[in-house]
Amino acid sequence: MTIPHEELAAAADTLRSWALDERLKETVRADPALASIAERVARRYTAGSQVDDALRLLAANHAKGHQGSIECVGESVRDADVALRETETIVDLAAQLAATPGTATISFDLSHVGSVVSPELGLKHALRIAQAARDAGSYVMVSAEGSSRTDLVLELWERISSDFPETGITLQARLHRTPIDLDRVRRRPGPIRVVKGAFLESSAVAHPRNSAPMYQAYRAMVSELVRASHRVNIASHDRTLVARLQDELGDELRAEHVEFEMLQGLGTELLDSLRDEGLATREYIVFGPEWWLYVLNRIAEHPERAITALADLNPQFTSQLRECDAKSGQSS
Prior knowledge:
8 strands; alpha/beta; single chain
């Protein structure tokens, strides 16, 4: 069965609107039956609720030759006490990374650690996390947020990178403003993660997802960074896009400043194949209870994943999935 593009786009927009619906999230979480269903769907895309869950997956991936980036998932925190508590969790993650094999960066949304409460609070907590990451021999990657927060994200990132120049930033190829932002962030040495952009945006602000202009913008950004020898994380699990970049850039993608980065549960086979070809690879791992927005945005990227979500609700299939995970961990 072929679903018309217009229906898939409408389904994606519905999922993105649900992702931002705080009332719907709390309704689901408050109902034990609905919460159980939602958590089973989320399991494909998250390591679990605790730091240890993420560290176990990180170790398994390291054994396969992948580096890691870990995020305690969450954003849009509007309470200073919650922001502090979440910051403590991320600082604890950094401390544990110091004793973990392999290389892992720490990713987070500035709004997760207080930038919505106040920019100064977000900056204070981000600087603390950056120091903890440096103490662990790593660094932080600041994640992208909706376009209404892009100015704030970039301003705070610049302030963080003044003290921690290794700090990375994420740019969305979809946004019309991004070429100007790219010129701005290239003035600092931190890595630039290039993503398509998963947020619900108007046509006045962004190219349609998976449109020709979006693909062109993505390839242009990556090519510019690769050829300028600026550290770049090519963050996409889109096979067609990755193949096109390989055709266009060839062995230039083997340079030390280039990495391919893919989200847990979405690009595993492709990431493994790139590693087998000798390219630098990194898997993005998320953990924590606040996965609602993250998981719905992942499904919205390809609404066909709703079928996968239904399969994940089948008890027999879920049991098989757990067995595969356990075997993967043992063989890694």
